[in-house]
Design brief:
Blueprint (H helix, E strand, L loop, with lengths): L11 E3 L9 E7 L3 H15 L3 E3 L8 E6 L4 H20 L5 E5 H7 L2 H5 L5 E3 L7 H9 L4 E3 L22 E5 L1 E2 L10 H4 L4 E2 L2 H13 L4 E5 L7 E2 L11 H6 L3 E2 H11 L4 E5 L8 H9 L6 E3 L7 H6 L6 H14 L4 E8 L6 H14 L3 E6 L7 H5 L6 H24 L5 E9 L6 E5 L5 E5 L8 E9 L3 E9 L2
Parallel strand pairs: 2-3, 2-4, 4-5, 5-6, 6-7, 8-11, 11-14, 15-16, 16-17, 20-22
Antiparallel strand pairs: 1-2, 9-10, 12-13, 18-19, 18-21, 19-20, 21-22
Helix pairs in contact: 7-9, 9-10, 10-12, 13-15
Bound molecules: S-adenosyl-L-homocysteine (SAH) and FE3-S4 cluster.
S-adenosyl-L-homocysteine binds next to strand 16.
């Protein structure tokens, strides 16, 4: 299954139910990772209190916000193209509209955005969304406004996000912000700042709220969920010594997962992303213990070569990663495992690349997201290492790993043939309006005839056929 995700190049326009009395119109579009989609919901919630309802028509928007991604150069180019589009609409159809840039590109480019893109009135970094009402006042008075201050505390734990454009069945719940890992290729620590964990009580309240509103599945979200640690807020380093830290009643990720799964035994739970270096055995035991936590772990490795892993500042070797895979399969039999992989990191040789291929053979991932290395300004890799793998070599290596992944995905998917799986119905199948589409706990998409079932039902489905990516089957009854 081709899972080379190009950072949502279509973007996603999000709308929500109109709030009575709100007269202004917000068009909000998100690119990049799930965290951005989740953040856009926070922003829409803040703006609903300012009199804005969402629209999916650029032509009628008073305010256009684009939540941006910097992870690869291509992601940034996509946003630049969208700005051109906004420009055309503003010129031809909607001269009153104001344009704001949110997210990682806002943080990376700061005031430079205003110079480079004349259409932009407002630049807001990921930790400054609560300041948007003030910034909008500036904009209304005809001044450009910028706030890109990163915070050591902000988790937006006190804001209940409005659920935008969702299916009313699955939702993201963010549990950490930022990242302290400093992988040398990655721009995230620069654009999203230091790692902070959110108060478990506010997480539980959000999940309660979702459950009450009929949601059936949540994904606990963070750049690095396994390093979640709550002991009252702020940065981990704020503790003067280890004993001071232990004295605080801390909650780690395994405990948080256990708390949420216990409080909501009927809610299906996923989490993403796990960095292998922070993933502890305890988490695996919690996954194994709870029926409602999906047996799927997204465990990005980036490369199969220990030398490259070291250059990437990933804190584990190839062998340690393989041990973690073995442990995962031992503790959670049949657990689906997926990867992120980067080809063409500086100095990557053919030998290193073969190690990536052989690691993939070892794990036989269920699916994966694969990318060519893209140099990001300001990162350690950009400062210290020459982007020296030729483009053609990167392309060829990417094709090789994608083809291998497709082979493995096909093998993994076929393992479900003849079996009965539990599917949470999310929506109508795109290809056939007489069929439902949903996902299994292993994160396989499954389609089957609608019969009398409805979205939000957990249905037992007997798998009769499959493609590399999708299970095809027949419903045999509601899951207990
Ligand atoms: N927090 C996650 C990853 C966040 S970014 C983790 O622990 O790995 C999502 C993916 O984008 C990464 O896993 C990596 O595969 C890819 N990526 C990040 N920076 C990149 C770059 N400069 N070039 C190419 N791919 C990159
Ligand atoms: Fe990036 Fe590594 Fe953090 S990939 S988001 S620095 S774990």
């Amino acid at each position: 299954m081709e899972k080379i995700i190009d950072e949502n190049t279509q973007g996603n326009t999000l709308t929500l139910e109109a709030r009575d009395g709100n007269s202004r119109k917000l068009y909000i579009e998100s690119y990049g990772c799930a965290m951005n989609f989740s953040d856009s919901e926070i922003v829409a919630s803040i703006l609903a209190d300012q009199g804005y309802n969402t629209t999916n028509l650029l032509e009628e928007a008073d305010l256009v916000l684009v939540n941006t991604c910097s992870i690869r150069d291509k992601a940034e180019q996509t946003v630049r193209k969208r700005l051109e589009k906004y420009n055309a609409v503003k010129r031809n159809a909607n001269p009153k509209m104001k344009v704001g840039v949110l997210g990682c590109m806002a943080e990376r480019l700061k005031e430079k955005f205003l110079e480079e893109e004349k259409i932009v009135d407002l630049v807001v970094g990921p930790d400054a969304y609560k300041d948007i009402p003030n910034l909008l006042k500036e904009v209304e008075e005809g001044r450009d406004a910028v706030n890109v201050i990163l915070s050591k505390e902000e988790t937006y734990g006190d804001i209940s996000p409005v659920r935008l454009g969702g299916n009313g069945i699955t939702a993201f719940v963010s549990i950490t912000r930022g990242c302290d890992n400093m992988c040398t290729f990655c721009v995230v620590p620069f654009t999203r700042g230091r790692e902070r964990s959110r108060d478990p009580q506010s997480i539980l309240r959000e999940v309660d709220d979702l459950a009450e509103n009929g949601y059936k599945e949540i994904t606990l979200l963070g750049q690095n969920v396994d390093s979640y640690l709550w002991y009252g807020g702020g940065l981990k380093k704020d503790f003067k010594n280890a004993s001071e830290m232990q004295q605080a009643t801390a909650t780690d990720f395994a405990q948080l997962l256990d708390l949420v799964a216990t409080a909501h035994p009927k809610m299906r739970i996923r989490f993403s992303t796990s960095n292998p270096q922070d993933m502890h055995e305890e988490v695996l035991h919690v996954v194994a213990k709870h029926e409602n936590i999906c047996n799927h772990i997204h465990l990005p490795v980036q490369s199969g070569s220990t030398r490259i892993l070291k250059a990437m500042n990933r804190q584990h070797t190839r062998e340690e990663y393989m041990k973690l895979i073995d442990k995962t399969r031992e503790i959670i039999p049949g657990c689906a495992i997926s990867q992120d992989m980067i080809v063409g990191f500086p100095t990557e040789t053919e030998e290193d690349h073969k190690e990536t291929l052989s690691l993939m053979e070892y794990v036989k991932y269920d699916f994966g997201y694969m990318y060519k290395y893209s140099e990001r300004p300001g990162t350690m890799a950009a400062r210290k290492l020459k982007d020296d793998v030729p483009e053609a070599t990167k392309s060829r290596r990417l094709t090789e790993i994608v083809e291998l992944q497709q082979k493995h995905s096909a093998i993994r998917t076929a393992e479900f043939l003849g079996k009965t799986v539990t599917v949470l119905i999310e929506k109508e199948s795109k290809k056939n309006k007489d069929e439902w589409s949903g996902r299994t706990e292993h994160n396989n998409v499954a389609v089957f005839p609608k019969s009398t079932y409805k979205p939000g039902d957990f249905v037992k489905v007997k798998v009769t056929d499959c493609t590399t990516a999708t299970l095809i089957g027949e419903a045999v009854g509601l899951a207990p």
